Amino acid sequence: MKKYIIPVLAAFAIISCNDRKKEKEAASETEKVTESSISSETYAEISVKEGGKWVGREYEGGEFKNVDSLTVPENHTDHSWFIRYEGPGWENKNVGYRLYLDWRNAIDIFGKKVDTLVLPYVGQDGFDSYHEEADWGLDILKAGKSMGIGGYGRYMNDTVAHFRDVGNTMATVINTESRSSVEIFYEDWTTGKDTIDLEAKLSIFPEGRYTKAELTPSAEIDGITTGIVKHGPQLIKKQSENVNWAYIATYGAQTLVNEDDKLGMAVFYNTDELDKQIEGTDDHLVVFKPTTETITYYFLGAWEQEKDGITSEEEFVSHLDQLLQELNSNNNLN
């Protein structure tokens, strides 16, 4: 009897080994597909739940799947659990950003400790897991009621109107060799007595920490604004005479990591497009002149824990001054 058992057990062992080999090969192929589907230097994505169902304003069940474009469902709002990390994200080797694709419309920072692309894996192991420190980094900025870093809205009646009243919102992600972009079209955005369409394009490039923001309103309204969330550090401002670009910035302990963790944030703007630079309740604000032309500005976050990161205010200001010089020489950073 033993002479029959031994060959059968051997056969099962061979089959089991072959199955494990196939599983490893399949997993390897999946990783190859995932890696080859994103640019090697920049990446943008939007990922939504499929296979579940809406229960009121929350999406229950389902699994996340990346899509190239999305029309935001009418019942979607903050904490609907429908979009992975609540909106589109974009990154390069230095830093990652995300935009809350709901009424808040704020932009947040993913601080990165590594120089590889990480967004495809962020939030896959739990909706809020990116708030916990991981090997790659974590969400480091508290936006609260502000626009975060470089977000946009409308300054009116001494406050910032976000995107509570929008007829339709459509988002698209585009990845190329030279950049990755998120394009968002807001149809029938109503603030006060005005209703307009707004096109926004947010692009990141292989080098640097900055995002290029381009806003195109369908009609002239006053008060279109961007800014930096207020978290305590003193505002830094730089504007030279007879040049077209300037910046506002903050540097200091202003992250979610701990009370000593340092972060620098900056917004570069074209002075020809500036109406005024003022202090809002929650943001240091840059308010633009009414126009139907494209408004262009840049914003960035520089975390001290990023690989080869900036670790002092002096170093941060020097970095900003170099970028400002480039803007005034070339009128762009890309």
What is the secondary structure topology, with strand pairs?
Elements: H1 2-36, E1 43-50, E2 53-55, E3 58-60, E4 63-67, E5 69-71, E6 89-91, E7 95-99, E8 107-112, E9 137-139, E10 149-156, E11 159-161, E12 166-175, E13 180-191, E14 194-204, E15 210-217, E16 224-229, E17 236-239, E18 245-253, E19 262-270, E20 274-279, E21 283-288, E22 295-303, H2 313-330
Q: Quote the CATH topology of the largest domain.
A: Beta-galactosidase, Chain A, domain 5
Q: Report strand %.
A: 35-45%
The succession of helices and strands, N to C, reads HEEEEEEEEEEEEEEEEEEEEEEH
Low-confidence stretches: 1-37
How are the strands of the biggest sheet laid out side by side? 5-12-13-14-15-22-19-18-17
Notes on the protein architecture:
This protein has 334 residues and is α+β, with helices and mostly antiparallel strands. It has two domains: 1-34; 44-330, Beta-galactosidase, Chain A, domain 5, CATH 2.70.98. The chain has two helices and 22 strands. The strands form four sheets. The protein has a nine-stranded antiparallel sheet with strand order 5-12-13-14-15-22-19-18-17, with helices on one face. A six-stranded antiparallel sheet has the order 4-1-6-7-8-9, with no helix packed on it. This is DUF4861 domain-containing protein. It comes from Christiangramia crocea. InterPro entries: DUF4861.
Please provide a brief summary of the model.
This protein is of the alpha+beta class and about 325 residues long. It is about 15% helix and about 40% strand. The protein is built from two helices and 22 strands.
